[in-house]
Amino acid sequence: MKQLFVLLSLSISANIYADEILFATANNLYTNGEYSEAISKYDSIISNNIESPEVYYNLGNCYYKMGDWANAIWHYEKSLKSERNEKTIQNLVLANLKIIDRIEPLPQLFYKKWLTSLSQLFSTKIWQILALICVWLFSFFKIFILLTIYKKDKLSHIFLMTAILLVLIANFSYTNTIEKKEGIIFSSTVIINSAPTSNSTDLFSLHSGVKVELVDEIGDWINIKLTNGNTGWVKKNNCRLLY
What we know:
CATH topology of the largest domain: Serine Threonine Protein Phosphatase 5, Tetratricopeptide repeat
Strand content: 5-15%
Number of helices: 8
CATH class of the largest domain: Mainly Alpha
Order of helices and strands: HHHHHHHHEEEEEEE
Shape: globular
CATH architecture of the largest domain: Alpha Horseshoe
Largest sheet: 5 strands, antiparallel
Structural class: alpha+beta
Radius of gyration: 23 Å
Number of strands: 7
Distance between the termini: 38 Å
């Protein structure tokens, strides 16, 4: 059993070391302007089931340098799914300026806008950890008070209220990042239909690089929603999903 554990540990360490070498090689290729080769190396890391926001960010930069805006946007968005990073956000904004369509989002209610801004300060995982820490602290102080003659219970109430707030923020962040199904249009031009059939009415067209929310799915068709509220149906193969 001990030998098996040692062999498993050595295997994991070797894989990590190999991926670190691969990552360094890909970075050197990117620095030298060999973007296609760098993409191949970064993709090899992802194929080893390593979902690194930094790798997705670097892939986004490679595609940006190559002028492939849809792929650049997809990889920046994928990176932001697991980690909020100012550099990634800035590069995503620049990539979105390169695409044809300009989708103006609907104005949000003030409280939802405030909650969105707050939730984006940290990743969903960080909010969940903070909430869990507050729950533990509340439990600890509650038990401490019950087992001692100390009767001032203000601190535990503070931790309880903080934990409730953090749980709400973590849930909002999870709903709007991890649970939310989104995708990027990859076809150069695609017609959005009123129903999941080619014979339905043409509503509007979209171009490569636009982010859409997935509302429903029927066969090869997906119902999408834009940030401006427009909805419609499009063939799934025109869109690369972000989950």
